[in-house]
Amino acid sequence: MEKRVIMDGKRRKKGLAAASALLGGVLVLSACSGGDGDGAASAKTPESQAQVDEAAAQKTSKAQISITPKNGAVNASINKDTKVTVSGGTLTQVTMTTEGGKSVKGEMSADGTSWAPTEQLDRATVYKIAATAKDADGLEAHENSSFTTVSQANSFIGNFTPEDGSTVGVGMPVSINFNKAITDKKAVQGGITVSSSSGQEVVGHWFGNQRLDFRPDQYWTEGSTVTLKLDLDGVEGAQGVFGVQQKTVTFKIGRNQVSTVDVATKTMTVKRNGQVVKTIPISAGSPDNPTYNGQMVISEKFKETRMNGATVGFTDDDGKGEYDIKDVPHAMRLSTSGTFIHGNYWGPDSIFGSTNTSHGCVGLNDVKGAGDPNQSAAWLYDNSIVGDVVVVKNSKDKTIAPDNGLNGWNLDWASWKAGSAV
C-alpha cells in the first residue's frame, strides 16, 4: 500500500507540471494578443494602424462642403442666407427642394466653388439641400441640410414710398411703414440707408414704432437722384421678429415747384425753380372749418374722387355726412386726415378769390366731369406731381402735425434729427 501511494504522488506531480505548462502556454498566448507582451509583435501594431489610416485617407475626398443656413435652422432668411460653398474641390451637383418636392432654381459660380438660389424663397417653408463635390483626385464628398424659413408671424416688411423709378417733387420724403411694431429701432434704421446724388445729408425720423421717414434739411435738390437701400434681411426688429427685405430703390427729383396758399388773400402763388409761373384765386376753409397751416406734400392724385364728410368727422344730426360728392374733380391729397387741394364745380365762380367756404380743403374753380383743361384746377393738376409742396399760411387753424400725411417738413432740423435712432 505504501509503495502505491508513493507512485500516485509522483504521478500527481507530473500532472501538475503538465497542467502548469499548459496554463503557461495559454497565458503566453493571451499576453501576445493584448499588446503588452512580446515586443516584436507589439511593434507591428502602430505600423499597421498607420497603413490603415493612410489607406482610408486616400479613399476620402479632400473636398469640404459647407451649407448655410445650418442644418435644423429656423427663422431662416428668404433672401440671402442660403448658400453652398466648397473648399478643396468643386461642386458637381446641388439640388434644393421644398419638403413637398418643388425644385428651387439656383446658379453655380464660374469656378464651381459656390451655389446660391436665384429666386426668393417662401416664408414658413421647409427646404432641403443635397450637395456633391469632387476633389482633384475625383473623390466625391456629399452634404445634406434642411432648414425652415421665417414665418409670416415672425417676420416684418416695410411698405415704402416713393416707387422705384418714379419722378417726384422736391418735398417727397422717403416714408416707410412697417407691418409690425418695431422695438429695436436702432437695428432696423441701421439696416436702411438713403442717399442723394446731390450730397445732401439725409436723416431718418421715427413717428411711433411703425413709421420711419427720411429727408434732408432743405427740400431735395432738383434733378438729383435719391437711392434707398433696404438691408433688413435677418434684422431682428422685435423679439423673434425678423426682416425679410433686401432691396434697392432709386427715384428722381423733378423740377422745384412750391405753391403757396395765402388764406387771408385767398390766392395761391405757384413758383417753379423760384420763379412765379401762375397766381390762382382759391377758396380755403371757412372760419368754422379752417385749413391747416404749414408745409404739405402732395401724396396722391385723382382725376375724380368721392368725398364724404362722414369719413372725416363732418356729420349731421342723423349721422350722415354734411356733404357727399361722388365726383370731385382734380383732387390731390395733402393730409391723411382728408385735406385736399381740388376742383370745385358746385360753388359759384364768385367765391374764388373772395370767400373761404370749404370744410378745410383748398378749392379751385373747375367744371363737373373734369373735362375742361382751361380751368384753374385742371391746370394745377396737370402741372403738379406727387411730392410737390403746397404751403398754407395765414389761416386761423394750427400747423398741421408732421405725421399727418408726408408733412415732416413742419419739424425744424434739430427736432427732426432728434427723432433718429442712430
* Structural class assignment: alpha+beta
What is the fold named in CATH at topology level of the largest domain?
L,D-transpeptidase catalytic domain-like
Instruction: Summarize model confidence as the mean pLDDT.
Output: 88
Number of helices: 5
Record field, number of beta strands: 27
Spatially, the strands of the biggest sheet line up as: 21-20-19-27-22
Q: CATH homologous superfamily name of the largest domain?
A: L,D-transpeptidase catalytic domain-like
- What would you say the CATH architecture of the largest domain is? Beta Barrel
Net shape: elongated
Overall structural domain count? 3
CATH class of the largest domain: Mainly Beta
- For the termini, the CA-CA separation is 115 Å
Strand content: 35-45%
**Helix coverage percent:** 10-25%
How would you characterize this protein structure?
The strands form 7 sheets. This protein has a 5-stranded mixed beta sheet with strand order 21-20-19-27-22, with no helix packed on it. The protein is built from 5 helices and 27 strands. Residues 1-44 have low confidence and may be disordered. The protein folds into 3 domains: 64-148, Immunoglobulin-like, CATH 2.60.40; 156-254, Immunoglobulin-like (Sandwich), CATH 2.60.40; 257-407, Beta Barrel (L,D-transpeptidase catalytic domain-like), CATH 2.40.440.10. The protein has 422 residues and is α+β, with helices and mostly antiparallel strands. Keywords: Acyltransferase, Cell shape, Cell wall biogenesis/degradation, Peptidoglycan synthesis, Signal, Transferase. The active site is at residues 342, 361.
